[in-house]
Design goal:
The protein is mostly beta strands. It is built from 1 helix and 8 strands. It has one domain: Elongation Factor Tu (Ef-tu), domain 3 (Beta Barrel), CATH 2.40.30. Strand 3 and strand 4 form a beta hairpin.
Length: about 140
């Protein structure tokens, strides 16, 4: 399994689902004659990695996610496919609130499990002219 890496941490339990996409940054301006001028400044990377009904993280991973959210800058390096492309990283900002909650437990080991999601997007100044990166 090609797991993502975020903020220096490769998740033992990969997110399910994981969605990453490029979003165009359009500037729109209505001209005096009523027509619309549109300028595409480029693309920003957006993503959501989630542990929902089909996935979970354990206490160690939960602790690492907590550290990510408690950092003052909120800036992290995101590697979409760390195992396959270990040198391809993006500077991202975490954009959602901390939403991890208990998700039952593992009856075999008596450990607590958690579910939630992490949303992020490219940092300021990380706009690319093309959307042809690997995913």
């Amino acid at each position: 399994m090609d797991a993502p890496k975020l903020n220096g941490y490769v998740f033992k339990h990969p997110p399910k689902p994981s969605t990453v996409w490029w979003e165009s940054q359009l500037l729109k301006h209505q001209l005096a004659d009523g027509s619309m001028a549109v300028y595409n400044k480029g693309f920003v990377l957006k993503g959501k990695i989630e542990w929902g009904s089909n996935g979970w993280i354990d206490q160690d991973e939960y602790s690492n996610v907590t550290v990510m959210y408690n950092q003052l800058t909120g800036t992290a390096k995101f590697y979409p496919r760390f195992t396959t492309y270990s040198t391809r990283a993006f500077n991202v900002q975490i954009t959602n609130d901390f939403n991890f909650v208990p998700h039952g437990g593992d009856l075999n080991t008596d450990r607590q499990l958690y579910q939630g999601s992490i949303e992020f997007q490219s940092s300021v100044g990380e706009i690319t002219a093309t959307a042809t990166e690997i995913f």
